Amino acid sequence: MNAHFCQEISIPCTSGVLEGRLTYREENSGKAGVILCCPHPLLAGNMDNNVITALAQTLANHFPVLSFNYRAVGKSFKAEPDLPLFEYWDRLDQKNDFFEIIADTEEVIRWSSRYFRNFHLVGYSFGSFVGLSALPSTVLSFSAITPPLTEHNFERLKSVGCKALLLFAENDTLLVQQQTSVSLRADIREIPKSDHFFLGREQEVAESVESFLLSL
Predict the structure, then answer these.
(1) Secondary structure string (H, E, C) spanning the chain
(2) What distance in Å separates the CA atoms of residue 34 and residue 81, rounded to the nearest whole number?
(3) Residue 67 forms beta bridges with which residues?
(4) Confidence (pLDDT) at 47
(5) What is the pLDDT of residue 177?
(6) Angle (nearest 5°) at CA 207 between 34 and 36
(7) pTM value surpassing 0.85
(8) How far apart are CA 84 and CA 71, in angstroms?
C-alpha cells in the first residue's frame, strides 16, 4: 500500500483564510472524501488533536481526508488579531453564539468540492455540533464522536436523512450524555473504559468510524 501524503492548504472564506490539511493516498483520488471537524479550541481542538490525527491517518487509507482549524486557531485568520485565543473563544462560549464558526464550516464544505464531490462528515465533541449545524442535505453520512448533547442543540439529528454514527466514551465525565434524546436511526456505539479525550485509545475510535464508513 502506498504512503500517505499530507498537503497543507489554505481555505478561503468570506471573513479570512482557514488553515487546512489534506491527507490522502494517490490511489484514492476521485473517491468520496471525509471532512473532519475538530473539538473546541480550548479543549485541544485543532488539526493536531490526538483523535483528529488518528482519524485522518486511518480514514486516509480509503478516502481523501480534509481537516481544518477554526478561526483564531493555528494559522487560521483571527477576527480580532490582538485578542488571545482563550479570550476570543471564551467570549463565544459566554454568548453561546457560534454562528460565524458554523458559517466558516459551511464555506469549507463548499470549497472542498475541488477535491471531492461527495463526502462523509465526522465531528469530535464540539466539532460534532458544528458539523451537524453546517451539514448539507447531500452529505453521505454523519459521525458524531462524544457529541455534547446537553451543551448544544442536537435536535437536527432527528431529521438528518443520511446514515449516522454516534460514538460515546463509557467513562465520559466531562459531559453528561443523554443518548435517548437522539434519533434511534443512528448507529450508537461505545468505546469501553475510555473517557472524553481517548488518550491512548484514539486508534480504537478511528477504527470504529472506519468500520462504520466501510459498511455503508
Answers:
(1) CCCCEEEEEEEECCCCEEEEEEEECHHHCCCCEEEEECCCHHHCCCCCCHHHHHHHHHHCCCCCEEEECCCCCCCCCCCCCCCCHHHHHHHHHHHCCCHHHHHHHHHHHHHHHHCCCCEEEEEECHHHHHHHHHCCCCCCEEEEECCCCCCCCCHHHHCCCCEEEEEEECCCCCCCCCHHHCCCCCEEEEECCCCCCCCCCHHHHHHHHHHHHHHC
(2) 31
(3) 21, 36
(4) 98
(5) 56
(6) 25
(7) yes
(8) 12
Is there a contact between 112 and 119 (Cβ–Cβ < 8 Å)?
yes
Residue 161 and residue 180 in contact, taking contact as beta carbons nearer than 8 Å: no
Which fold does the domain 5-215 belong to in CATH? Answer: Rossmann fold (3.40.50)
Instruction: Please tell me the least confidently modeled range out of 20-29, 64-73, 169-178.
Output: 169-178
